[in-house]
Design a protein that fits this description.
By secondary structure, the protein is α/β, with parallel strands linked by helices. It contains 19 helices and 14 strands.
Length: about 425
């Protein structure tokens, strides 16, 4: 990579090191980097099996890559899987993911780290998920002639690849054996800059949420908690800016029972969240279970990981957080259950948001008034609620199959 790119990586590393004194995520990342190579060497010592290296930025991208891991392990149980993350929010949650032979942090993208990582892993195939472009790693893979792919990728005109000064980034795209993109617009953008080894394969997240739905994972306490409610409302991956939009409506609607799963939680966050509902009987999930799960509770706040994707099964309407911040979280997780999804205005980077809005299964709101209007209509018009939910479910069904398309292309067309 050119000196300017390597300087930017050095600045990124310096910034994270400087922040470790007051940022727990930075501390966890730097500690994890120290363990990466030892973990790889231990897991792969004496290995003679093919290795698939799959890299995800964080937890959301892992969910996109997960169907590919599951299919490879099912069809090729002898293959080893190396799973790497950039972000602590992905690594810390999935560091014990059972289908990966080793889960590690990806060290900073320096030439030395890239060479050492690729030499140690010795991958037969490398897969990057959605939008991970690390120039030195990609260059190291190309030099070793490792078949390298990006899956569920989506491109937008504002990205550096499409700017006059983006030559370095366009060079990264040339390192991929093939690019599997979500939509035709991404394919066309790449074609315009001379990148034609591209297939519109769709988004593997649709397959993942369908797998979760078919798992029939039931949470026995929800029907008891939601009994006799005129509406069952679930807010997933909620941030304070989201709660400012929906809390007053929930306080005013005693006939609606609700569950809130905050995106992040600590004691102060949970205490603040409970305090938003002074007129209602609201408990933390852990408190409610210790108290014998009283049916009188009107709202629950989830204070543990691992429930959300199955919680939506029991909702009439879901609100997905993040749309008043950096961007919405996974709306497909809810839509797959055939319920309408409501979310904030910052959804432009997400193809599925546009698709759900277009078919009537998703509703974007930008204010308290808009949220109240939508929810009042859902509550008073069962036919509208039903049709919106059916539209959401259909949209998911119509977009299944990306994992199989990509797998067949990589592991059938390209032999390793």
């Amino acid at each position: 990579m050119n000196p300017l790119y390597n300087t930017s990586i050095a600045l990124l590393r310096a910034g994270i090191r400087l922040s470790k004194g007051f940022n727990a995520k930075s501390r966890r990342m730097l500690e994890g980097h120290k363990e990466t190579f030892a973990a790889l060497e231990q897991a792969l010592k004496g290995n003679e099996s093919p290795v698939m290296w799959i890299h995800a930025a964080s937890l959301g991208e892992f969910e996109q890559g997960r169907p590919m891991i599951e299919m490879v392990k099912k069809e090729h149980p002898d293959w080893k899987v190396v799973l790497s993350f950039f972000s602590p929010s992905g690594y810390e949650v999935r560091k014990k993911y059972p289908l990966a032979d080793v889960v590690v942090y990806l060290p900073f993208d320096t030439p030395a780290n890239a060479r050492r990582f690729v030499d140690t892993v010795n991958p037969s195939v490398a897969i990057f998920v959605k939008y991970e472009f690390w120039g030195n790693y990609l260059s190291a893979l190309r030099r070793r002639k490792v078949p390298t792919y990006i899956i569920s990728a989506i491109f937008r005109p504002a990205q550096a690849f499409f700017k006059p000064w983006g030559g370095t980034f366009r060079g990264m795209l040339k390192c991929f054996t093939h690019l599997y993109v979500q939509d035709e617009a991404s394919r066309k953008l790449l074609e315009d800059i001379g990148v034609t080894n591209v297939t519109v394969a769709g988004d593997t997240r649709f397959d993942r949420v369908a797998d979760v739905r078919s798992s029939k994972c039931k949470i026995e306490w929800i029907p008891r908690m939601m009994e006799h409610a005129a509406m069952k409302f679930i807010a997933g991956s909620s941030w304070p800016a989201d709660e400012a939009v929906y809390a007053d409506w929930l306080n005013a609607r005693k006939d609606v029972k609700f569950i809130i799963a905050p995106h992040e939680f600590d004691d102060a966050r949970l205490s603040h969240l409970k305090g938003l509902f002074p007129g209602r009987e609201v408990m933390l999930l852990s408190e409610w279970q210790r108290a014998g799960s009283p049916a009188s509770v009107e709202g629950l706040i989830v204070d543990s990981f691992g429930h959300l994707s199955s919680l939506y099964r029991y909702a009439d309407v879901a609100y997905i957080g993040g749309g008043f911040g950096t961007g919405i979280h996974n709306i497909n997780e809810a839509a797959v259950y055939g319920i309408p999804v409501v979310f904030g205005p910052r959804h432009q980077k997400f193809r599925e948001a546009a698709g759900l809005i277009q078919c009537g299964g998703g509703i974007s709101v930008s204010s308290v008034v808009e949220f109240d209007d939508v929810m009042d209509r859902f509550l008073s018009d069962p036919a509208y609620l039903k049709s919106a939910g059916e539209a959401a479910g259909r949209y998911i069904t119509e977009n299944l199959g990306a994992t199989t398309r990509i797998y067949d292309s990589i592991f059938t067309t390209h032999r390793h």
